[in-house]
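quick one, 159 residues, struct below
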Amino acid sequence: GLHRIVGDLLVILALLFEAGYTVGGKASLERIPPLLLIAFSVAGSLLVWIPAGAIAVMWYGTPHLTLDTWLAIGYMAVFATVGGYWMWFRGLSVIDASAAAPFLFVQPLLGAALGVALLGESLTWATMAGAVLILSSLMIVTLGASSREAELLVSEPPQ
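---
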């Protein structure tokens, strides 16, 4: 229904913001080491998350967090956030942002695959059609880039 459409649009919006963040991050890597860039990003995100958390506490009260919950939060912070972004920016220091950005669209595919494998979610035709479109787009972008590089090498051989 409507909630699913809104959710899908929010995922697309998030991926577009992530692509912009990737391009901006690539430019920033020329001046700032990856871990410092991640620290700035996380600190900047607190400008949104602290007020959002305060509103949630006002509406729902203070949650009781168990040790397992704190360990899960720590894992997400260290491995998923810092580790993931550190690997992403290390990769960006080697390749061009325009080559890396299209691969952000693999995230929903991995999420869908993990949902099916770990949570027993159903694999719908719409999900499979989306997967085909994403993978086809990646193939076109990747093959298009390699054929342009080949044309450049033929027209202007390295000296």
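The mean pLDDT is 84.
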